[in-house]
């Protein structure tokens, strides 16, 4: 199994560290030809506007969109979730536009920009540390979308077919549970 990590901007290094720890081969994705080599892709946190722009400049936006539509497993964390959304609340921007969710950027206000929370994710037994940094949340979901987690009434984890999206940063903790959850999706897809 080989996992790609979109590496145009943001926290891609930290995701690689987690995959290294799990003994999973990964590569940094910077050009479209690399998409042929991988079994799944992680879209890291960072700044979605910058990332979206760079995806266009690097000619990655359309090829990646096609790959995801054709079933390649994708894991969007924070900005990555924003990239996946079909709709942003009060904002006409759409990046990949593949996941049937409406996402509110910087959904917790500036004061509450960063916080930690011990929370539950559906399908995961123990509570895990959720790290939020100027995080988005999911305001509404389409019929096919499964809600995997909420914090104080706000949706923070969703799954739709081959797509997993969360508003927090599992790569900034020691916990590998969510990455393993995604790798499981990739494994199943390969079979
Ligand atoms: N606020 C950022 C954005 O809009 C997301 C923050 C993050 O990825 N930690 O893209």
From TrEMBL:
Keyword Ribonucleoprotein: no
One CC-aspect GO term: cytosol
Classification via SUPFAM superfamilies: Class I glutamine amidotransferase-like
GO molecular function per UniProt: glutaminase activity; pyridoxal 5'-phosphate synthase (glutamine hydrolysing) activity; transferase activity
Swiss-Prot/TrEMBL catalytic activity: L-glutamine + H2O = L-glutamate + NH4(+); aldehydo-D-ribose 5-phosphate + D-glyceraldehyde 3-phosphate + L-glutamine = pyridoxal 5'-phosphate + L-glutamate + phosphate + 3 H2O + H(+)
Stated family: Belongs to the glutaminase PdxT/SNO family.
Protein name as catalogued: Pyridoxal 5'-phosphate synthase subunit PdxT
Gene that specifies this protein: pdxT
